[in-house]
Known about the structure:
Blueprint: E1 12-17, H1 22-36, E2 40-47, H2 60-77, E3 82-88, H3 97-110, E4 114-118, H4 132-149, H5 157-160, E5 171-175, E6 182-185, H6 190-198, H7 201-204, H8 210-226, E7 234-241
Helix pairs in contact: 1-6, 2-6, 3-4
Keywords: Hydrolase, Zinc
InterPro entries: GlcNAc_PI_deacetylase-related, LmbE-like_dom_sf
Protein name: Mycothiol S-conjugate amidase
Amino acid sequence: MANVLDDSEISRALVVMAHPDDVDFGAAGTVARWTARGIEVVYLLVTDGDAGGFDDDVPRERMAPMRRAEQEAAAAVAGVRDVRWLGYPDGRVEATLALRRDIARVIRQVRPDRVLTSSPDRDYTRISPSHPDHRAVGSATLDAVYPDARNPYAFPELLAEEKLEAWTAREVWLSAGPSADHHVDVTDEFDTKIKALRAHASQTEHMGDRLPEMVREWLTANAQRAGLPAGRLAEAFLVVPTA
Length: 243
């Protein structure tokens, strides 16, 4: 079992994901629990999701603003009001020094106790969560947490020009990876999670009634692996201490 900080020890959390809807598929129930407990949560989306969607009648130039609006609506469902964007091209994200600096900048701005991001590791048993953008963002975020954001001499322009002091996040939660050591019971937040996912209409509308059934199946499997009682639902994470 992971050595996880109690939510009472957390004031702020930063969620860093590649695309709009990534956080809602992986962690909307958990985020809703955090915000209900008074934790301030900020979302940082690396891309606008401009390569997403299923409707050929929607012009490509409309997709990015549509998905931004969908994510902000979904964030509000989970109690999140601060959504930030980096504007990297969807489908072409790499764990570059530039991306590390951009994420480290936001870590120093937000000063979170906890960071949640996607796993940098591929899951060979279920390929869809291991999108290359997800893995690149997870890798860059871990590097931004350690050593970039906490080292005042890394990206010195952040301190010298932007007056952003170094900051150490106390733990990182990794979502959608091949292994997990911490599960959050989100049975009571299931309807909230589905409402957040339905806000991403360009991505989920075509699923219809299959969406809650599919999500319930995933969360049930997580709960069973965690040893929770029958009928419970859980989101799964690998928790990485940073001390």
